[in-house]
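Extended Data, record Putative ABC transporter ATP-binding protein
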Amino acid sequence: MSDAAPPTAGLLVAKAVSRTFREGGRDLRVLDGLGLAVDAGDCLAILGRSGSGKSTLLHLLAGLDRPDPTAAGTPAGGGLFFRGENVYGGSERRLDRYRRSSIGLVFQSYHLIGELSALQNVLLAARVATPLTRWPSTRREAKARAADLLGRVGLGDRLHHRPGKLSGGERQRVAIARALVNEPAILLADEPTGNLDATTGREVLDLFLGLHRAGQTLVLVTHDDKVARAAERVVVLEGGRLVEETAAARGVLVPGKRGRDADRRA
């Protein structure tokens, strides 16, 4: 699959991004010169088989892992860019700020703290993103925002329940509220319905779609065709590259031409 020119515009742009792991004495390249542009207001599904590198890509987009250093022969200016700034090209402080405030991340396995209530789990994310000197003056507002978000995801009567007292769907809703508490520009979700039954998974997917209708930019990483069908734009991860696979309208996939690189948005 040949590369198109890397994308140059978008809210979040990956340009010629690769990620290689050392395994069994050999190099395993999971992502290979990948290009992707996410625009404000997008509802994008990244579809791929298990083991295709979807989680690796998500971690790179979220600032949790670094891409390979730019190698000779790759397009100049490669990297991950948020609003035009290279996410991995600056200081650790700037990278931390990006992770805490610009990106909201929803994990498949929730990653809630069992000793904390639903409200405390959400509030903790706000606390981590707030400078220590500002927290005393902003804590009350953050707590109100956390409670409001839990109410919006249908857990207004579960604020003080710990994760062990919540169902899988309720835990995922807490995770969504936590990801939203710092008002991120982009909400990333890794297999958001993967641990849920069909009915609960549909409810959680509907919640994500409601957030998108309210203006939230979404990137959903999934192997589930049902999740992909709900997105407005779908790309498939194959051979370490993203291929524009389909456009979606009213929840129905519209077949598109195979072989168009996702970074067509140059």
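Summary. Residues 229 and 262 are 17 Å apart (CA to CA).
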